[in-house]
Amino acid sequence: MQSLNSCRVKIVYLFNCEIKSYLLQLDNFAKYFTIRNGGLILVSVNLLIIIPFIAAALILFLQKRVSRIHIGWFVLLIPIILFIFLVRYIPNIANGATYLHTINWIPSYGINFSSYLDGLSLIFGLIITGIGALVIVYSIYYLNENESLKHFYCYLMLFMGAMLGVIFSDNIMVLYVFWELTSISSFLLIAFWFQRKRSREGAQKALLITVSGGFSMLAGFIMIGNITGSFSFREIIAIIPDFYDHTLFIPAMLLILLGAFTKSAQFPFHIWLPSAMEAPTPVSAYLHSATMVNAGLYLVARFTPVFGGEGLWFWLVTVVGLVTMFWGSFTAVRQTDLKALLAYSTISQLGMIMSMFGMGSAALNNGYSADSVVYTQATFAALFHLINHATFKSALFMVVGIIDHGVGTRDIRRLGGLATYMPITFTIAMIGSFSMAGLPPFNGFLSKEMFFTSVLNIREANIFSLEAWGTLLPVLAWVASVFTFIYCMIVVFKTFLGKYQEERLEHPAHEAPVGMLIAPIILAVLVIAIFFFPNVLGDYLIVPAMASIFPAFAAEADLGVTISAWHGFTPELIMTIGVVVVGTLLFISLKYWKRIYALLPESWSFDSLYNAVLETVETSSNKITNFYMTGYLRDYLVYIYLFFIIVVGGTLIYTGALNFDIAGNAPIDAIDWFIAITMVVGSIAIIFAKSRLTAILLNGVIGYGVALFFVLLRAPDLALTQTVVETVTTVLFLVAYYFLPDWQKENSSRKTKSVNLLISVLVGAIFVVVALAVQNEKLFESISGFFENSYELVGAKNIVNAILSDFRGFDTMLEVVVLLIAGIGVFTLIKLKARKGEEELENK
């Protein structure tokens, strides 16, 4: 045994040396394409985000010019180039380097396009680009060429760019922009087969839940910015210890966690992920196993140094994660659709990773100590399993796509015996499933053992009341692992072994094309390779990421963990053996105890609750809309004016702003009183007029009265404009008089007219009071003196013309443009109507 271990150590050492040598050579090679002082390197981090968006725009124009070649081959170059570019950074990042570049965006609000590349973002970047490249290879053979491929790859590039923006953004407000872009682009990808009702519903559910969480996260970001005065991750982490007692600290933490939980499908927000499985399989393999759902995990990891020392953060992240793990695994066993089973298994695995991030945050309780380093191992395990999960789960989704593509169904009840006809697919499925179940010699075994180590270590912690409740954590973790083992066995044995049922399949079983097998084979090889050489990931990727999450410990403690498949007969190994034994017994007796799921009818599920809430909201919205959308202009004006009366009038009364003094105003002449009383009488008379012609003439009286006031107040230009407008308006009313409906049919009751009169009086009174109050409270000097000097300023003797053409020239120009557009619209409508009339005459 010692010689075997010695030989293994030498192999690992030589392999590490070869990897290091290769990376250094790649680093030297890449320098030929950069400026040696590093300037271009910094700019290129931003380019990592921008390039996919540029590619998305070009794809729409590229397909027409490359119709003979599948457009996917051109799109494939983007993630490959970005992946190689990120690999070039591994040696420097492993040595503690970080890269930051800032482009000013809204500096007055502290919002800048700052890209930050460190160990944590590097892991996620490699997953996004690496899995993205494999998914594109897979999709080239999976999707039919008759599909709208340019839109598919355009959406895929938009999503890739948005995800890279999330992980590389140092500014949390910029991160939020990309965060919502991931929701929008995933909506487009899930609804790619929009002709299917379930695809549209799944896309809608994913959008509603993730965007709602995003809004709460935005509120949390604003609070953090208010607390610290900065939106930069680095600056927030540096100064946050001074604000732990701030009243907004806990609310900000809860709102940010809500955004992370919704995006990463944590209980009870997990319901969107199974519905999103209506997306094409490449989308599921990319978004819902390796990238989008990991955005919430990234957010929790990135904010761990900010909130990690808080007990509430520890309990929420840990417990929600473990509950999600249990519920996802428990629900996965009852599924009959392979893709739905993988969806719930993804939920379970995400919960497992989330719980480990929560347990790792205990290291920040009461500052640095020797015991704290033990808790950081949970975070190490979380990052390790994050990588492992991306490999085996993406492979399994591709396997399900191959099965669906080959035999025409994903229903487990109709499958069986496929191993004989699909041996390569069966091998990949077995590797992925056994890895997810935590069996050797696959990478999932290593990270699952580290997960058990984490829950056992945290049970013994003397913090956060763990001495009372800590024992429940390993119990819940073990039970969830048992159900994980069961659904993994279902994938292998119920699908590929047993009786072959060709009569229940849409197509005879056959092995997939080589092109469709390339990506899952690569992932399956990685699953095994990581098991034998795990410390390559640990040394070059996970340790630098740990330094990003625990910057205060990085200089004082060794945050790395030596990953090994054999530690002796430890409690973790005993727990694993228990999982295998109990899981095997439960799998064999599945048909007997599976009846317990009948005790939880679908009507009690969170899906049913979501549908009920959505239906109630839609019904209530329709009722409210039908209540105020009556189709009558009078009702809409009543709503507007009532709102104005309540809000403005109520504000004036509440704030005591009704004080005014008219003693210093100019005296009102008899002619002013006469015109004003005439206008008032005309206004009241319109309401009670019995003829439309009378109402039109009375409306003209009001307009011409305003023109007379302009004359008396020595504003001839305004008087002329008012006269022209009023004349045109009156003439138009008279011209349209013939086409208007019968006045008697529209004539309202006396009660309605009285309400109209009351509303009119109140609105008029409020305007008068506001005008008097504003006149009495002059906070600044009037600008009229500046305009009166128009001749010296612009050489204009007419002050009105000077204001229109010089002082507010742009405003006037835009008004003219609006009038021009309106005129073009009217002209177009007239021409269309005339053309339609001519066509009708010709048809007759």
Automatic annotation (TrEMBL):
Annotated organism of origin: Oceanobacillus arenosus
Family label: Belongs to the CPA3 antiporters (TC 2.A.63) subunit A family.
Domain NADH-Ubiquinone oxidoreductase (complex I) chain 5 N-terminal: 105-153
NCBIfam families: 2a6301s01 (TIGR00940), PRK12645.1 (NF009285)
Protein name per the record: Na+/H+ antiporter subunit A
Lineage: Bacteria, Bacillati, Bacillota, Bacilli, Bacillales
GO CC list: plasma membrane
Cited InterPro entries: CPA3_Na-H_Antiporter_A (IPR050616), MrpA/MnhA1/PhaAB (IPR005663), MrpA_C/MbhD (IPR025383), MrpA_C/MbhE (IPR046806), ND/Mrp_TM (IPR001750), Nuo/plastoQ_OxRdtase_6_NuoJ (IPR042106), Proton_antipo_N (IPR001516)
Transmembrane segments: 40-62, 69-90, 122-143, 152-168, 174-194, 206-231, 243-262, 283-301, 313-333, 340-360, 380-403, 415-437, 475-493, 514-533, 573-593, 636-658, 670-689, 696-713, 719-740, 755-774, 812-830
Record localization: Cell membrane; Membrane
Pfam assignment, any one: MbhE
Keyword field contains S-adenosyl-L-methionine: no
GO biological process, one term: proton transmembrane transport
GO MF assignments: antiporter activity
Domain of life: Bacteria
MrpA C-terminal/MbhD domain boundaries: 678-741
Domain MrpA C-terminal/MbhE: 755-831
Stretches assigned to the NADH:quinone oxidoreductase/Mrp antiporter transmembrane domain: 169-466
